[in-house]
Design brief:
By secondary structure, this protein is of the alpha+beta class. The protein folds into two domains: 155 residues, Ribosomal Protein S5, domain 2, CATH 3.30.230.10; 136 residues, GHMP kinase, C-terminal domain (Alpha-Beta Plaits, 2-Layer Sandwich). It is built from nine helices and eleven strands. The strands form two sheets. Strands 1, 2, 3, 4, 5, 6 and 7 form a seven-stranded mixed beta sheet that branches. The longest helix has 18 residues. The protein starts with a strand and ends with a strand. The model has no long low-confidence stretch (mean pLDDT 93).
């Protein structure tokens, strides 16, 4: 039996969500699936994700951040160090702002509970994912872990968690830039830019754009949603979390006919997203491929 953690995109509200503003976020139709088998000869707790060239052992590779995260998940579950080999299949790239670490944590937690014949307690899975995300990212908002576990589309606030909203299926173009980035470094950069002031006008605008974009999504007004996304990218760039590579990918998408485009997630690298009329999607992907970005179309909602 395999267990899954969903990848995600943030349509609007990243970084501002850390300061209490809403974020409009959605689980992708793909993520990380995980299976657990007894480790031969009773060996250690191991994790292997071939697509990411990731192979760690809890304990003996404690200097590796994912090895530490694996141990943190096991501890949050009260599982000790069972003799398991966790083998994962990843349908999203890592370090791309698509919630890969949270998807991995949720899939691992679920697989470990299944292997132990324990109930898939949502609160326990959330706690395990939060422990992993805190170790890896320092001060995560919590939205990645919430979507990795629950799927769907929702408005997330740190104080209230994820509020699911019903939406029709929406096709989103995802363009991994190929540039690694550090979520914690970008969160720190924004904190420095706003001086820790949650009332900063740029954060407030990002929150307002989330409200407007959510209304547009519920009304299936994609041009309005795209405009909110493009403006949000400009604000995020002003906060120092974009770069020329991400800016050019967004510009290329809009020039090819997209309603709007923006970075998604922490920024500093990672991925951009765009929404476009169906007949313009191929043109957007072609423009991205010309700059060595292998984009794809994912579905959210529905």
């Amino acid at each position: 039996m395999t267990s899954i953690g969903w990848g995600k995109v943030i349509l609007l509200g990243e970084h501002a969500v850390v300061y209490g503003y809403p974020a409009l976020a959605a689980a992708l139709d793909r993520g990380v699936t995980m299976g657990a088998i007894p480790t031969p000869k009773g060996g250690p707790l191991r994790l292997d994700v071939p697509a990411w060239e990731l192979a760690v052992t809890a304990g003996s590779t404690a200097d590796h951040p994912v090895a530490r995260a694996l141990a943190a998940i096991a501890d949050a579950l009260g599982a000790g160090r069972p003799a398991l080999s966790l083998v994962g299949e990843a349908q999203i790239p890592h370090s791309a702002g698509l919630g890969s670490s949270a998807a991995l944590a949720v899939a691992v937690a679920r697989a470990m509970l299944v292997a132990a014949n324990r109930a898939p307690d949502p609160a326990l899975i959330d706690a395990a994912a939060a422990a992993s995300e805190t170790l890896l990212h320092g001060r995560p908002s919590g939205v990645d872990a919430a979507l990795a576990a629950a799927g769907g589309v929702g408005v997330f606030r740190r104080a209230a968690g994820l509020r699911p909203i019903p939406t029709p299926p929406l096709r989103v173009l995802v363009g991994p830039s190929g540039m690694p980035r550090s979520t914690s470094a970008m969160v720190e950069a924004v904190a420095a830019a706003v001086g820790g002031n949650a009332s900063d006008a740029r954060l407030a605008e990002l929150g307002a754009l989330t409200d407007d974009g959510t209304a547009a999504l519920l009304a299936s007004d994609l041009p309005r949603l795209g405009a909110a996304m493009s403006r949000a990218h400009e604000v995020l760039a002003g906060l120092g979390v974009s770069n020329p590579r991400l800016d050019s990918l967004c510009e290329a998408a809009r020039a090819a006919g997209a309603h709007g485009a923006k970075l998604t997630g922490a920024g500093g690298g990672g991925a951009v997203i765009a929404i476009a009329p169906r007949e313009k999607e191929a043109a957007v992907l072609t423009e991205w491929r010309a700059t060595d970005v292998n984009g794809f179309v994912a579905t959210i909602g529905g």
